[in-house]
Amino acid sequence: MNLDTGNPAPVGMEILVEGRVQGVGMRPAVYRLARRLGLSGRVWNDGGRVVIQVWGAPVQVGAFRRRLPAEPPPRARIEAIRTKALAGVPPVDFRILPGRPAAAANVPPDVAVCDACMVEVRDPTNRRHRYPFTHCADCGPRFSVIERLPYERRNTSLRRFPLCRDCEREYHDPDDRRFHAEAIACPVCGPRLWTRPACAGDPIAQTVAWLRQGKIVAVRGVGGFQLLADATDAAAVARLRARKRRPHKPFALMARDMAVVRRYARVPPEAAAALTAPEAPVVLLDALGETALPEAVAPGLGRLGFILPYTALHHLLLESFDTPLVFTSANRSGAPLCADNDEALEALSGIADAFLLHDRDIVHRCDDSVVLPATGPVRVVRAARGLAPLSLSVPPGFEGRDGILALGGGLKATFCLLHRGRAILSQHLGDLEDARSFAGFQKALADYRTLFGFQPRQVAVDRHPEYLSGKWGRRWARSEGLALTEVQHHHAHLAACLAEYRHPQDGGAVMGLILDGLGWGSDGTFWGGELLYGDYLSCRRLAWLRPTPLPGGVKAMTEPWRNLVAQLWQAGLDPGSLPVLRGLPVQALLALLEKGLNCPPASSTGRLFDAVAAALGLCPGGQSYEGQAAALLEHLAWQSDDEGAYPFTVDGNVLDPAPLWSALLADLARGVEKAAVARRFHRGLALAWVSLIGRLRPAGSDTLVLGGGVFQNRLLLETVRDRLEASGWRVWIPRQAPLNDGGLSLGQALIAAAGG
């Protein structure tokens, strides 16, 4: 027998890689792995996926296929790999080819500058010493600079900066960290900084000097402008509040490093991980009392929002500060974030004393993300830079349900596309009550349609008749001949969480406790404290908080005292003797309640929190930002370890808060500490719902969703969750999408898909 002992004939394999595989250094990683294994072939971006073709000995090709998912770049997330055999003549080498445009469903979010780049920025001998736009293949802007797919330099706003000889060499060197780094730049060929007013020296040094002088500086960042001020300068913080017309809403803080953060706040391990993650969000932390900042940074709250520098520019600005800087969105209260230089110079002229500008265009404006640490995973409060666009694989049963556009609600607006087997959630786009914010919402939607090659066939909106997003969506669906689905607000909260946990379309109904401010109910009244049982297709209301009138309608959303009067009136108690209500038109309000004039009923948990806060003297006359009274009440409750709980009663399917009021007023009359009163309210509400859930638990049910903006209250969330888990429940809480109204559009999209 004549055996051939020579080299085996080469084989070819095509590999399609899907997931977060663009803008994360995937092609360079593939190139290096193929070269190490002695393979020839090519790799390119194809829409939102990566296509690899390799040829070589069967053993080497097999090793490549095994090692590819085991050795991805740090920021890659491989979700699917498909292979097929290739015929034909193998190429002589391995190359990275230009990308091919195609419809995609994954766009890389922006990534914080990496440690390796910062070593270069701090090295006086390096050519990028103190260069504020230093990035490599593992870090830097992505979504904020992408104009079209595939993600390559020619398709970003960096295309206007031709590479110098040194950057060109790095870009094409497989052994260099900047091999195919699309955001590559240097002082010779990259973006530049300048100030207004103009300065003759270093713009960064001048900005630092302004900050030390107590000035407010508008700085153009990755996704838009931020306003910076010395957080230890009470006068500067007060001026910023006055100019921005933001009297109480807390400011975020940027600190140089973790050591600075730890001087002002408690940093548990999960918070430290979030602060140092490549997404670089604002992380909400419990403040330390020993090293106090001016009260005006976060009035009345024991929580501080900290963020670490996420670009070389921020690192350079903060390097000489061993105290924090106020770091807040550059806009007037209620208006969208400024992103363009000319726009900022005009809109912020009465707020900022000076400007630090650059010429790298921002294609997609993106505020900073915000997360809340809790026991277990951090919870997303606002998904924006670093987290958005959020692209989730659709749950089983929803494959092929493409072409659905969901438009969210009215506050904390987002939209969601169902496209190519994925649910794509937009960045936070603000509150749509402001016409400029709504214009920004429309522009972002147009940008997403272009970027993803998305063509809607069905539109989903909130059932509320007055939401601007819903009105616009209904008109647009009619004019374009698109199918329209109107989704109940709290059903959308439930479905959004089911989608995150990949609950199958035919997975059956689960229970959901949804607590928020207001949402339009299926019975035409306002809801906000609901125990639901449902899936994507349908949902029924098992129990609810007893509806209480909203005296004055929308005024009750901003004036907590109105809710206190309504709660006491409904409980049969006289509010006239309460000191906190003196000087307010209580009798006029009682007359409205008796006549039922402009007093729509609402089962709103948010308004119940407002009422209790008002009873304790927390901004009873008015709140200047959404959730202010509730946030102050939670802060007060954390100052007590009281184990009491105020009573609620159950009347059929209705949880009635009336009994708590007699107990609460009696405690106040006896001089019980207000912190203990606040704690007893939180515990009473949590335990009442847990008890009612146990009574109404359907046979065989073991999963329960917690959702709605009220669950941003960590004390309430953890009390309810811990009690439910102790009773054998599997509790699902949103982890990637916001559990407030920022996640509504995700749930709307899945509900529309289930029904269509």
Number of helices: 21
Oligomer: single chain
Largest sheet: 10 strands, mixed
Mean pLDDT: 94
Shape: globular
Gyration radius over CA: 28 Å
- Helix share of residues? 25-40%
Beta-strand fraction estimate: 15-25%
Note the gap between the termini: 65 Å
Strand order of the largest sheet: 6-13-7-8-12-9-11-10-14-15
Tell me what the structure shows:
- There is one protein chain.
- It is built from 21 helices and 30 strands.
- With 756 residues, it is α/β, with parallel strands linked by helices.
- The termini are far apart.
- The longest helix has 23 residues, at 674-696.
- The protein is globular.
- The strands form 4 sheets. The chain has a 10-stranded mixed sheet with strand order 6-13-7-8-12-9-11-10-14-15, with helices on both faces. Strands 22, 23, 24, 25, 26, 27, 28, 29 and 30 form a 9-stranded mixed sheet that branches. Strands 16-19-18-17-20-21 form a 6-stranded mixed sheet, sandwiched between helices.
List keywords for this structure.
single chain; 756 residues; alpha/beta; 10-stranded mixed beta sheet; 9-stranded mixed beta sheet; 21 helices; 30 strands; globular; disordered N terminus
List the helices and strands and how they pair.
Layout: E1 11-20, H1 26-36, E2 40-46, E3 49-56, H2 58-70, E4 77-86, E5 94-96, H3 115-121, H4 165-172, E6 193-196, H5 203-212, E7 217-220, E8 225-230, H6 234-244, E9 252-254, H7 258-264, H8 269-275, E10 282-286, E11 303-307, H9 312-318, E12 325-329, H10 341-347, E13 354-358, E14 370-372, E15 379-382, E16 390-393, E17 404-406, E18 416-419, E19 422-425, H11 435-452, E20 458-462, H12 468-480, E21 483-487, H13 489-500, E22 510-520, E23 526-534, E24 539-545, E25 548-549, H14 560-570, H15 586-595, E26 601-604, H16 605-615, H17 628-637, E27 649-651, E28 654-656, H18 658-670, H19 674-696, E29 703-707, H20 714-726, E30 730-732, H21 744-755
Parallel strand pairs: 2-5, 7-13, 9-11, 10-14, 17-20, 20-21, 22-29, 23-26, 24-28, 29-30
Antiparallel strand pairs: 1-3, 1-4, 2-3, 6-13, 7-8, 8-12, 9-12, 10-11, 14-15, 16-19, 17-18, 18-19, 22-23, 23-24, 25-26, 27-28
